[in-house]
Amino acid sequence: MRWLKTKVWHISAEELDSPETAEKLEEIKTALTYGEIIGLPTETVYGLAGDARNPEAIQKIFQAKGRPQDNPLIVHIHSIDQLEEFAEIPDERVLKLMRTFWPGPISFILPLKGDHIAAKTVADLRSVAVRMPSHPVGLKILEYTGIPLAAPSANISGKPSPTDYRHVVDDLKGKMYGVVNSTPADYGIESTVLDCTTFPYQIARPGEIKKSDLERVLDNEIKVHEGDAARPISPGMKYKHYAPKQPLILIEGIVMAQTLAAEKEDRKIGVIAPESFREVVPEEVEFISLCQKEDDYREAAKNLYGALRKMDKSDVDMIYIYRFRETPFSAALLNRIYKATGDVMIKGDQAN
């Protein structure tokens, strides 16, 4: 593994047209052109970006993250016209969805065309996941460089994803050429992934754009992928993700007070839950609030990875995380929580 002195570029959305920003964009373009990798801000999470066409750049991404080679990467673009180089748009329905939700937190799995994209980027599949981020700085970098950028989350593989440039520095300092310091992610969890290589289209990974959002645009029903994850078509389908170093256990709210009271005094406990549960958590327990109300799923999703990272740095021995109610609006949040816990859970009937 090579070690670099990681550069930090400070770029704000308000200064995108300034001469100083132009100099930074040119430096970023040069670095990416020569196969370097950088931390890129998006509205979902920070990405670790490299030229999707360059096998050496893609190998640096996998190496820096410690990411399994059979886990495909999402390619980021700034214009639908860029798809002409490497992907097929199956029909007008897909184009309609793109025009509705791009730029935004959704990726489309499309049939791969030609050999423009490095085989390592797509894990040797004949399909490619593509998205157009709405973060103004991330989108500007894509537009200025003109390079399709593969950009998985900029973290050590399996750990909580980064929503702030400081998270990227914590995980990958010395393993990337540079990172852009800009506004934190708006949504805090990765994009929805929609598989458009089969019909009806299938959600391969839930995110901010929900099944109901997609079905409002198309008359046809959208399916949810339930296939075997042994050969993933999308990031996030095969491996455990988003986990801190401590054991992380799901807990239902109705047994939280009882469970915490029964814990041994010599074990340091952390709890991640809505603010409304703070009153049942003993003072000696580390508590991090995800949101004010139990049904504020968007706020909880935005804060999830930051909370996991904070607990990861604490001295607690184990962590309980609140199990939110399953609804169409909580699907993406619960998907990330279940991946982090491995579905280990304390239920009401296990409390005695």
From TrEMBL:
Listed EC numbers: 2.7.7.87
YrdC-like domain ranges (all copies): 22-209
Pfam families per the UniProt record, alphabetical: Sua5_C, Sua5_yciO_yrdC
Cell compartment(s), UniProt: Cytoplasm
Keyword set, alphabetical order: ATP-binding, Cytoplasm, Nucleotide-binding, Nucleotidyltransferase, Transferase, tRNA processing
Protein residues bound to ATP: R67, N71, S153, S161, R205, Y242
Single GO term (MF): L-threonylcarbamoyladenylate synthase
InterPro entries: DHBP_synth_RibB-like_a/b_dom, Sua5-like_dom, Sua5/YwlC_C, Sua5_C, T(6)A37_SUA5, TC-AMP_synthase_SUA5
Enzyme class: transferase
A GO term from the CC aspect: cytoplasm
Similarity comment: Belongs to the SUA5 family.
Function, as annotated: Required for the formation of a threonylcarbamoyl group on adenosine at position 37 (t(6)A37) in tRNAs that read codons beginning with adenine.
Protein's name according to its UniProt entry: Threonylcarbamoyl-AMP synthase
Organism: Salinicoccus kekensis
